Amino acid sequence: MHILVTGATGGIGRGICEVLALQAMPELQLTVASTQNGERLEALLQALRDLGVQAHGVVGDVTRPEDAQGLVHEALDRGGDLDALVCVAGASGPGKLADLSVAQWDQTFNLNTRSVFLMAQAAYPSLKRTSGSITAIASMSGLHPHPGYGAYSPAKAALIMLCRQLAQEWGPEGIRTNTVCPGMVRTPLTESVYQDVDTKARREALVPMGRIGRPDDIGHAVHYLISAHASYVNGQNLVVDGGVADHMLSMIPGRPGKAPLKA
Ligand SMILES: NC(=O)c1ccc[n+]([C@@H]2O[C@H](COP(=O)([O-])OP(=O)(O)OC[C@H]3O[C@@H](n4cnc5c(N)ncnc54)[C@H](OP(=O)(O)O)[C@@H]3O)[C@@H](O)[C@H]2O)c1
């Protein structure tokens, strides 16, 4: 089993890699992609090797078509055909739409949406040979508008549709494509928010499960989607958010158990 993971050195990416490494998948090889060689990539490779996995590191910028091709080709050279592509690389880009520059809009779409198209296209011949799968990390922001987050919600919404379309176009070739929508997950991307104890507590209070998500929560969802247990799951979006995105109606005043509305 050979899996290529982009954004592997980030919080969720590393969590996914570690969950996959712990699942005792037969002859697992993980190729982990980062934007740069260095301590973080080396530390991840060492951690995965310590878990008994054959791990390879590849470097590139997923927003660049030539790098996407290069990442896949290098992965194939190192570990043979891909059984799964997991696209994690992404980032939100705060900004109000009224002020957002075209360059910021393009950057957010290039990183969160176009990169998955580029990686999927580069991996397509290999995934076709293995009847492999693609799993992309979207966001609850792709399902609900996220005011103040610039083009992030539109970009993740487009990513979910891109993957549904890939599922239709490549399903007949044996390639399954799905997305995972994390809710609030504590990672380097969001760490500054959770440093504030009050903000952390207020965020936790919004989640029916009473806690902020962990990278391994997303890792287990990805493991399921790339496993044989999901062999009939194609074009789906798995929300892993502790129930937070659905809790909007519980905020309406006047429901049973809450203080009555004043006349
Ligand atoms: N954390 C959350 O609450 C949350 C919630 C919903 C969705 N998500 C999504 O989950 C994914 C991972 O988020 P995270 O919280 O783990 O963030 P993170 O810790 O900041 O990791 C982001 C990863 O993306 C990679 N990356 C960024 N730009 C890249 C580029 N141009 N080319 C290649 N790789 C690039 C980074 O690689 P390097 O480190 O090598 O530069 C990093 O590994 C993102 O798609 C994010 O939108 C996160």
Automatic annotation (TrEMBL):
GO molecular function: oxidoreductase activity
The keyword Zinc is annotated on this UniProt entry: no
Oxidoreductase among keywords: yes
Name of the protein this chain belongs to: SDR family oxidoreductase
Domain of life: Bacteria
Keyword tags: Oxidoreductase
E.C. number(s) listed in UniProt: 1.-.-.-
Domain Ketoreductase residue range list: 1-188
SMART domains, sorted: PKS_KR
Family under the similarity heading: Belongs to the short-chain dehydrogenases/reductases (SDR) family.
Gene3D superfamilies in UniProt: NAD(P)-binding Rossmann-like Domain
